[in-house]
């Protein structure tokens, strides 16, 4: 882990029922979590209120997405104002499933980030390359282009956590090695230093996501530029998620 406060987010994706979420919240409420870690969970929109009303305040709540601007006539969307209203502190933006399944583009994601920040939300800003991009030696180019879209849109990096999530590692059980993750995290920090500022580079947390679980988190957490994790599948199991939170070194 680096010098910033360790940050672990649980992305529940499109999973859960009222009953399964009641159980998960109870497990999280009874887990013992290291004090010096920011812990966040991202339930599906429709369960945010249930989670907000039952989960310990120790854990903050994130949405998994939001609309690009002010709410209004946008059927099926949820606005940043509404997320604030319901008690969310964070929103995940640019997740690979939204980029590659839904088709969201870099500049649209950048605009979402800027609007969410303007509403007082923190942004978990995801980036990451596809397998074919990695194999073609384009990992850094892809990540830098995605970073640039955020940098071009946002006025400040104070409330942004960057999540590096190689697409080939998400939901596949194929975790990046600590070296592979560290190499990209250093490159991202270097990009921020040159293109935003050395101060932003040193204080922005860069977390890793992609098949993190209770068994591989400790090795990843030893790396100097890995400031935490964004966890999908393993965040649906309270005790395992707690193990990942407590992997802070
Ligand atoms: C994610 O969805 O952000 C993620 C990293 O998923 P998983 O941990 O299941 O690979």
TrEMBL record:
Pathway(s) per entry: Carbohydrate biosynthesis
UniProt entry keywords in alphabetical sequence: Isomerase
Domain of life according to the entry: Eukaryota
Gene Ontology terms, MF aspect: triose-phosphate isomerase activity
Keyword Isomerase carried by entry: yes
GO terms under biological process: gluconeogenesis; glyceraldehyde-3-phosphate biosynthetic process; glycerol catabolic process; glycolytic process
GO annotation, cellular component aspect: cytosol
Keyword set includes Isomerase: yes
Sequence similarity: Belongs to the triosephosphate isomerase family.
Subunit structure as annotated in this protein's UniProt entry: Homodimer.
Record-given protein name: OLC1v1003433C1
Originating organism: Oldenlandia corymbosa var. corymbosa
Full-protein residues shown: 62 to 310 of 316
């Amino acid at each position: 882990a680096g010098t910033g406060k360790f940050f672990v987010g649980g992305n529940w994706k499109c999973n859960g029922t009222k009953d399964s979420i009641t159980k998960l919240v109870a497990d999280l409420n009874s887990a013992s979590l290291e004090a010096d870690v920011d812990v966040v969970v991202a339930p599906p929109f429709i369960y945010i209120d249930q989670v907000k009303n039952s989960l310990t305040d120790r854990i903050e709540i994130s949405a998994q997405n939001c609309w690009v601007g002010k709410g209004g006539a946008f059927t099926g969307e949820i606005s940043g104002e509404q997320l604030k209203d319901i008690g969310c502190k964070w929103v995940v933006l640019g997740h690979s499933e939204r980029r590659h399944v839904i088709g969201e583009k870099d500049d649209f994601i950048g605009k979402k980030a800027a609007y969410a920040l303007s509403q007082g939300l923190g942004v978990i800003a995801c980036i990451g390359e596809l397998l074919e991009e990695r194999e073609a030696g384009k990992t850094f180019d892809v990540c830098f282009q995605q970073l640039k879209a955020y940098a071009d849109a946002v006025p400040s990096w104070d409330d942004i956590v960057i999540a590096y999530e190689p697409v080939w590692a998400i939901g596949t059980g194929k975790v990046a090695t600590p070296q592979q993750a560290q190499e990209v995290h250093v490159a991202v920090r270097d990009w921020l230093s040159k293109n935003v500022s050395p101060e932003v580079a040193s204080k922005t947390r860069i977390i890793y996501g992609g098949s993190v679980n209770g068994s591989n988190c400790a090795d990843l957490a030893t790396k100097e530029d890995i400031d935490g994790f964004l966890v999908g599948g393993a965040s649906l199991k309270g005790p395992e998620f707690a193990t990942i939170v407590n992997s802070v070194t």
